[in-house]
Amino acid sequence: MNTYYETAVCRNLGLVNPDEQQKLLSSRVAVAGLGGLGGINLLTLVRMGIGAFNIADLDEFSAANSNRQIGATSSTVDRKKTEVLAEMAKDIHPSLSMEVFNEGVQPENVHAFLKDVDVVIDSIDFFQMEARRLLHKTARELKIPVVFSAPLGFSGTLHIFTADSMSFDEYFDIDDEMDNYNKLVAFAVGLCPRGTHWKYMDSSKVDLTSQSGPSLSSACNIASGLLTTEALCLLLNRDERQVKAAPHYTQFDPYRRIYRTGYLRFGNRGPIQKLKKWLVARQFRDQADALNQK
């Protein structure tokens, strides 16, 4: 480790030991998506001292991103998210290694994106279901764990998928025969089986046709804290801390002072989850056709 790096990570010691810090330096993490969660996930992991990253996104920053995305400022509007976040990451640790994928996660680059990766961070936009399914399917084939979190209301969720756990498609009960609308309904319901945020979030502000909904930077911070802590523990193989992979789930909501964890034995295939999917699908049915045309 060079002198700058040693000084930059010295306050990590006590929560990680020197051998673990060296292991983080030699680790490579793939971060898919650099928006509300992906950007802060990347920079948090950089500050933890992880030495190498593969990052992917195909979008540019806009002014509408500024309420929650760490790379979104007045000076970065219309700039590529990969370009901005790579600059920010290397400004923290100039010696880190970084492979950039400006086309996002695609069938033709997913294996290159996951090459030599130890942990995958799924920060893909909520609505990009096929890119997310591709990422999870390929990571599972390569036996790479995937950590996923979502900011919902004031809360954050956490799901972990490993080669031995329930798969992404199995947990959310998603298959190729479903249209895009029903895939997203299943995804939304599986994210928070005992959703804490529905009591205060105005669901009328969810617009599936424009692919937008209520979001806050504080929720992104909560979600990122859950996700990056789990990623650190996976990288360091902390034996005393059992991995709670799918069908385990977590939602932490500081607004309601609720921390919920659970085990969804059948994933979304259970009768209560099926009822929830039916209710959510009915609530937004008027937007289904427009969404399926996208």
Q: Could you give the distance between the termini?
A: 48 Å
Contiguous uncertain segments of 5+ residues: none
Percentage of β-strand residues? 5-15%
What's the helix count?
11
Q: From the alpha carbons, calculate the radius of gyration and give it in angstroms.
A: 19 Å
How many distinct beta strands?
9
Mean pLDDT: 94
Sheet/helix structural class: alpha/beta
Q: Sketch the topology as an H/E string, one letter per element.
A: HHEHEHEHEHEEEHHHEEHH
Molecular shape: globular
Structure explained in plain terms:
This protein has 11 helices and 9 strands. It is an alpha/beta fold and 294 residues long. Strands 1, 2, 3, 4, 5, 6, 7, 8 and 9 form a 9-stranded mixed β-sheet that branches. A hairpin with a 4-residue loop joins strand 8 (248-253) and strand 9. The radius of gyration is 19 Å and the shape is globular. The model has no long low-confidence stretch (mean pLDDT 94).
Tags for this model:
globular; single chain; alpha/beta; 294 residues; 9-stranded mixed sheet; 11 helices
Quick structural gist:
This protein is of the alpha/beta class and 294 residues long. Helices cover 37% and strands 15% of the residues. The protein is built from eleven helices and nine strands.
SSE blueprint:
Blueprint: H1 3-8, H2 18-25, E1 28-32, H3 38-48, E2 52-56, H4 81-92, E3 97-101, H5 110-113, E4 119-122, H6 129-141, E5 146-148, E6 151-152, E7 155-161, H7 168-172, H8 180-191, H9 217-236, E8 248-253, E9 258-263, H10 271-283, H11 288-292
Parallel strand pairs: 1-2, 1-4, 2-3, 4-5
Antiparallel strand pairs: 5-7, 6-7, 7-8, 8-9
Helix pairs in contact: 3-4, 3-9, 8-10
